[in-house]
Amino acid sequence: MNKFCENLIMGTFRLFYPAKYYGLEQIPEGRAVFVCIHFFALDPLFVFSVYQKKGDIYFLAKKELFRKKWAGDILKEFGAIPVDRENVDLQTMMAALRALKEDHKLVIFPEGTRNKKDDALQELKGGAAIFAVRTKSPIVPVMMLKRARLFRRTKLIFGEPFEFSEYYGKKLTEEDYRKLDAELREKMIALQSQLKALCAKKKGRNGNRTER
To answer: Is the pLDDT score of 210 beyond 70?
Structure first.
């Protein structure tokens, strides 16, 4: 995909799905694992939109999206790594770990599937913390106020990076995995509450005017 096509896709996306971002200053230099709530098939483009440096950001996408060659080619150009949601294979693991070890950024949707409850974070399927621990990468939670809608401004917030450094170099147990997922989910929920408070405050200043 040439730069013109990439800019056309992203320009069209921004036109149909405008966004308001909070916490962009939180994005660290170098490698990082972005963990995001997942409502919509095009959610990765919201992150790509603010860090549009070709070849520097990757994301995990269900393998079914790659069945059509043209779709798979486009996804790969945007940094998609195919994943079997029921059985993550070694090839997927190695591709994701390699991206982080090469100081790129990796976007993961730890719920494992799209969220149909609008703003309620589902239970996490696991995996995001493992990538971060194995590569000693900071984790940046990313939350949305609600699912994206055409021509409505989507509100997103990037949280403060944190690390599970106490687990570095440790052989993780099933109990460790559960603790990591529980702590990660708590941080994501807290960040979404922060986003709700910011939006409520802004709405109050605007005299309850609906923001577009």
So the answer is: no
